[in-house]
Design goal:
422 residues, alpha+beta, Phosphatidylinositol 3-kinase Catalytic Subunit, Chain A, Domain 5, six-stranded antiparallel sheet, four-stranded antiparallel sheet, 12 helices, globular
Length: 422
């Protein structure tokens, strides 16, 4: 069994990942390349940072257990799993066996019927006997990674980069796919968000198709863009993606803001962008806000926030789960958070109070103005989820001084209700 793997950043080999006889992971950089802000100023990576960061490239929960079983591994075997599926990950990092490079990958065209077959087979598609498909993406939800090339779907083989994430609707929560597509469309009116569409033409379940923000098309093909989530940026294990009050190292929005202040090209603009994302997520009643649903894009030694992603009115589907993964203004309960808590949180980051209030008002107004279009695009959005989200938008508008934003919310709400009655 191999004891070393090559670590690549885009098309450059940047280091070696080694598993010692004791089972520890050791990362040895070979050139000056910043994989994580957590290692800034460190001459070497500690074994704990190494395990935490590389573990963050792998799936979670049942997906991880199934993948480990497929390759005859223990689910906690980070090194073994990376050797098998770390060839195509989030961002620009690829973890490959010695002798291979990211350019070794290739594409195999697949028609819509083939895509539908794979989506309908999830989660058992993880047991696909085709070992050439070696892709890893974090999270617990079942998904399929594909590339869109010349208006046709293709399977990325041997670590070729994918361009899209396809997530079929979970059987437990009918309407969730439409709700996520609706929410991302509404949020995109206020802040950059992942591009997503909903289709009912790929398999038996509705599918949300998300364009990867960490991929770009160029004349030379598909280019990977380096990113890391907040757990990785703080050097924390995946298990701490939900903050634990009192834990000395738990993640927080303030710690993310501190990274932006220290590493962003334009810190004030990035702090406003962070506030836009947090306000949009709160307004949309998204309780699934944790440290792996916030990410940084790297630009050399600088960073910027990744677009908003994985946002939906989750409390419409899990009404008892209202606790956020990261506190806002000292509050963890989504139902207790209003504009004053958003402003208080932003002030902790160094955003002036009036700028924070103006940003929150602008976010709410832009989102309220996008509701009618989202309703037209996604008519299968469950009415209860839509009303919860509209009420959330209206709430943060109503709490802000001034009448114009509240009036816009009322108009959007009235129009939405009128569409339901027609």
């Amino acid at each position: 069994m191999t004891s070393t793997l090559a670590v690549w950043l885009s098309d450059r080999r940047v280091g070696t990942l080694e598993r010692t006889a004791a089972g520890d992971l050791v990362y040895s950089p070979e050139i000056d390349a910043s994989l994580t802000v957590a290692a800034s100023g460190l001459a070497t990576w500690s074994p704990q940072l190494t395990r935490n960061w590389f573990d963050g490239l792998l799936p979670e929960g049942d997906r991880r257990v199934r993948l480990a079983a497929r390759f005859g591994l223990r689910s906690e075997d980070t090194f073994g799993l990376l050797a098998e599926i770390g060839w195509e990950c989030a961002g620009a990092v690829a973890v490959l066996p010695e002798g291979r490079s990211p350019s070794s990958g290739r594409y195999e065209p697949i028609d819509d019927a083939g895509v539908a077959e794979r989506l309908d087979a999830l989660p058992s598609i993880d047991l696909d006997p085709d070992d050439a498909i070696r892709m890893s993406l974090g999270g617990a939800q079942d998904k399929l990674l594909l590339a869109r090339i010349a208006q046709q779907w293709a399977l990325p083989i041997d670590g070729a980069p994918s361009t899209h994430i396809l997530k079929p609707e979970p059987d437990l929560w009918p309407g969730l796919a439409a709700a996520e597509a609706w929410a991302l469309h509404v949020a995109s009116a206020a802040t950059p968000a992942s591009e997503a569409t909903l289709t009912a033409d790929l398999g038996a379940r509705p599918v949300i198709v998300v364009t990867r923000y960490d991929r770009q098309h160029s004349r030379d093909g598909i280019v990977r863009i380096h990113q890391e989530d907040l757990c990785q940026a703080l050097g924390l294990p995946v298990g701490l993606k939900y903050a634990r009050p009192g834990h000395p190292e738990y993640p927080s929005l303030a710690r993310l803001a501190r990274i932006l202040v220290e590493r962003a090209v334009d810190p004030p603009a990035q702090l406003i962008r962070l506030l836009q994302q947090v306000a949009a997520s709160v307004a949309l009643r998204n309780a699934d806000s944790h440290a792996k649903n916030l990410s940084l894009l790297h630009q050399g030694n600088a960073v910027r926030l990744a677009p908003l992603y994985d946002v939906a009115p989750t409390i419409a589907f899990l009404p008892r789960q209202t606790t956020l993964g990261l506190s806002i203004g000292g509050k963890f309960k989504l139902t207790e958070i209003g504009s004053e808590h958003l402003v208080a949180e932003a002030k902790l980051w160094g955003v002036p109070e009036h700028d924070a209030a103006d940003t929150i008002g602008a976010v709410a107004e832009a989102m309220s103005n996008a509701v009618a279009e989202a309703n037209d695009l996604y008519p299968t959005m469950p009415a209860a989820a839509r009303e919860l989200a509209i009420a959330g938008i209206f709430q943060i508008q109503q709490q802000r001084p001034g009448k114009s934003a509240s009036a816009a919310a009322a108009r959007s709400r009235a129009k939405s209700q009128g569409q339901e009655q027609s």
